[in-house]
Design the sequence.
């Protein structure tokens, strides 16, 4: 009997140990599952993670400026304005005071989303045919690299508008980090050294030589200190006198004097009359998410929603990321959207843009009817034929979210890398060449190969059409994805692919960013593909009739996903020195 009791006791003890082990395994398993909600080991890339906010921009120094503002108690708008000014110092080919752009702002407490348009405007003396030669052909040098090529800059006014209406810190505070960077100097990176060394256009401008090169216009080398004294002076003027310094004061006087001296038409009156405006964001839905983006004169938001509407009926998740079937569907959709862009889009203050029609699900179904799985639709069957153009990568985008859930998605630019190449003497300010974004001659493509019609013809005080696409995706009424990109005509398709990669293909934001991209813009009738695509996929697409061109990297997305109370940031590796900086 004692032996039987002992055996029963041992058996009970063993069962207890097994039960405890099972409970421990369940606990460990649940802990691992909880961890996988943060770190997903089924992904190849891993986003940066923050508890109290995130800043992602194309330059890590500028991102740190924004993160520091958030740590000081500033909100997303405060940080975004500080980043915008810092990029004017650290990323001079795209960050700017002499350009313009678009800012999307979401305020959690008011549950309000705002679209701020601070796009450049044509001077009052601008004319429809100002860039045509005596034979009626477009003079590209005049449209892109002369003093005539600059629209009235909007960046300073746009930043001031955002800060004073939606920020919490002072104008002087958010400018100070940029002023200090300009005055103390930045260490020249390999990227900046190489980029400046190859810019003959900058070296041909005396003030640009003084601002961005050593004595006798000798390029800086990696590791050297670049001090921008004139730009620091401009920041100090803005701190002391507000945006009036730029639009009515000493900076304005220098801009107007340089324009008058070198054949430009921008005047003090043009600068004084500039206004940033708020517009109603465009909104659509996709797979249960709300997509909110920039309205015209950005073409991005309208066509993002149009393309998502068309793709909603395709089984992209089943087909997989970057398979031939998925790419075929995306490309056929892209071609139709860009064809519509060429006809209908322009400054809504001057033309009636049929946004409701373009973004209607019924219109998407209508467009889908002639898309065939077997083969391509040649672009000439969608719209008349035209020839290709150049694609510039040097707009820049940044995204910010703060601990309260406020968000900013901002894209701004000088247009080309370093804009027109013209620096205003004594200011350190590079001027844009955004007048080329108008249709200098309707039906003739601009430098990005994009065709425009009458809707985007040059008129005084008009804002040129843009592809910039700062975008929010909302889940259950709260910001889920904050994203955007540079890339000229490729911006819209780049942002589209980030959204599809996250919402359809369930990639984390880092993997979504790293995935190779494609682009088609209707004309040229060519499918552009980044390195990294499977050659079997390439051959399958060629068999459908696609003309494929392997190309350099596309875009530079700076994205944030807010999920489970954490901020997941990804700075696109397609541009050197980009950085997503968390606030913890």
Sequence:
């Amino acid at each position: 009997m004692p032996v039987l009791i002992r055996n029963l006791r041992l058996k009970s003890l063993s069962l207890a140990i097994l039960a405890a082990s099972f409970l421990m395994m369940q606990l460990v398993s649940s802990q691992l599952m909880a961890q996988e909600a943060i770190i997903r080991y089924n992904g190849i890339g891993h986003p940066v993670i923050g508890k109290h906010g995130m800043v992602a921009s194309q330059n890590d120094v500028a991102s740190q400026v924004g993160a520091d503002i958030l740590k000081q108690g500033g909100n997303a708008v405060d940080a975004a304005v500080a980043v915008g000014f810092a990029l004017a110092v650290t990323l001079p080919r795209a960050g700017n005071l002499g350009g313009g752009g678009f800012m999307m702002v979401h305020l959690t407490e008011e549950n309000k989303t705002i679209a701020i348009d601070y796009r450049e405007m044509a001077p009052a003396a601008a004319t429809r045919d100002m860039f045509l030669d005596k034979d009626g052909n477009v003079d590209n040098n005049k449209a892109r690299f002369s003093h005539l090529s600059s629209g009235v800059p909007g960046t300073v006014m746009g930043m001031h508008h955002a800060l004073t209406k939606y920020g919490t810190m002072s104008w002087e505070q958010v400018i100070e980090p940029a002023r200090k960077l300009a005055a103390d100097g930045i260490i020249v990176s390999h990227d900046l050294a190489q980029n400046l060394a190859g810019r003959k256009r900058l070296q041909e401008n005396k003030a640009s030589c003084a601002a961005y090169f050593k004595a006798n216009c000798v390029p800086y080398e990696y590791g050297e200190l670049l001090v921008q004294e004139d730009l620091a002076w401009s920041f100090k003027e803005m701190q002391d006198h507000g945006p009036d310094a730029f639009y009515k004061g000493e900076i304005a006087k220098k801009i107007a004097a340089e324009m008058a001296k070198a054949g430009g038409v921008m005047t003090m009156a043009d600068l004084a009359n500039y206004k940033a405006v708020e517009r109603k964001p465009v909104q659509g839905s996709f797979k249960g998410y709300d997509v909110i983006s920039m309205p015209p004169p950005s073409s991005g938001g309208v066509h993002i929603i149009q393309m998502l509407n068309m793709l909603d009926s395709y089984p992209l998740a089943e087909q997989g990321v970057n398979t031939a079937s998925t790419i075929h569907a995306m490309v056929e959709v892209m071609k139709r959207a860009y064809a519509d862009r060429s006809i209908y889009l322009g400054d809504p203050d001057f033309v009636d843009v049929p946004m409701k029609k373009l973004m209607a699900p019924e219109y998407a179904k209508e467009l889908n009817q002639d898309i065939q799985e077997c083969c391509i639709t040649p672009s000439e069957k969608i719209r008349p034929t035209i020839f290709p153009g150049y694609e510039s990568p040097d707009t820049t985008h940044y995204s910010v979210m703060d601990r309260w859930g406020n968000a900013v998605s901002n894209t701004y630019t000088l247009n080309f890398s370093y804009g027109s190449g013209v620096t205003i003497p004594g200011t350190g300010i590079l001027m844009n060449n955004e007048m080329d974004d108008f249709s200098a001659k309707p039906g003739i493509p601009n430098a990005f190969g994009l065709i425009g019609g009458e809707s985007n013809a040059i008129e005084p005080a008009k804002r040129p059409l843009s592809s910039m696409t700062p975008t929010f995706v909302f889940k259950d009424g709260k910001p889920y994805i904050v994203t955007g990109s540079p890339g000229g005509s490729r911006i819209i398709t780049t942002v589209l692919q980030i959204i599809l990669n996250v919402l359809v293909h369930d990639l984390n934001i880092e993997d979504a960013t790293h995935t190779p991209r494609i682009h088609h813009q209707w004309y040229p009738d060519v499918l552009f593909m980044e390195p990294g695509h499977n050659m079997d996929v390439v051959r399958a697409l060629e068999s459908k009739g696609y003309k494929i061109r392997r190309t350099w990297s596309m875009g530079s997305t700076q994205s944030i996903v807010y999920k489970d109370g954490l901020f997941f940031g990804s700075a696109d590796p397609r541009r050197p020195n980009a950085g997503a900086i968390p606030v913890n």
Remarks:
- The mean pLDDT is 91.
